[in-house]
Amino acid sequence: MTIDNPADYWGQLWTSGRRYSPLSEPETAFLDQHAGPGRGRLALDIGCGDGALTRHLAGLSYQVTGLDCTPAAPALAEPSDGPVQYICADIEAPQPPSLPQRAFALITARLVFAFIKDKPVFLDRVRSLLAFGGVFWVVTPMAARLPTGQASTGIASADEELLTSRWAHARFMDVGDLRCYALRAWGDASTEKRGR
Which of 14, 47, 82, 90 could bridge across to 72 with cysteines, CB 3.0–4.6 Å? Predict the structure, then answer.
């Protein structure tokens, strides 16, 4: 799905009361397993929305930066017990967003990848921000599992191949119509599926 002005599009939906798939226990358990405890390490939550995942990462003791293209979503975020900051910037802007750090142990993109216009550029940008040994966490609907009218909000097999082919380790697990990926850039190439 291509959105010409993401800040306006998402801003209107958030301010109108629209909410999206909540975090589930199987999803967070799989994330926790692959991300591990934060121990003060840095995390970047791309497309943070109302901060649900951002707060979860703070609860794991990450220092989290929530990034969203519209200020409307993070403005709805509940307070966090951990160190969280929100930045309004577009990850797809021609110039990379100005971030307080440059090397993140964990980068997340939940319900975001299907809407990225230039996916190869996005993936290159993510890799440039990921610390050595870091994890890129992606959650996305699979287009083939969605009703025909909603298929554009998920990814097709070609997008999945693009997403996973650039990583040495690609682990994934299905949670309903969502697929959760834990991607690492370093190590021996391997792919593993865990169904749920």
Answer: 14
The CA distance from 86 to 132, in Å, is 24
pLDDT digits (tens, 9 = 90+) for 150-173: 888 899 999 999 999 989 999 999
Helix axes 157-165, 119-129, angle to 10 degrees: 30
Q: Do residues 93 and 36 lie in contact, with contact meaning Cβ atoms separated by under 8 Å?
A: no
Please name which of 150, 119, 158, 154 lies closest in space to residue 139, comparing C-alpha atoms: 154
Question: What Å distances lie between residue 169 and 19, 46, 116, 179, CA to CA?
Answer: 32, 21, 22, 16
Give the CA distances from residue 56 to residues 33, 142, 160, 189, in Å, rounded to whole numbers and listed in that order: 13, 24, 25, 29
Is residue 89 predicted with pLDDT exceeding 60? Answer: yes
C-alpha triplet 38, 43, 97: angle, nearest 5°: 165
DSSP one-letter code for 102: S
With pLDDT > 90 as the criterion, what percentage of the chain qualifies? Answer: 58
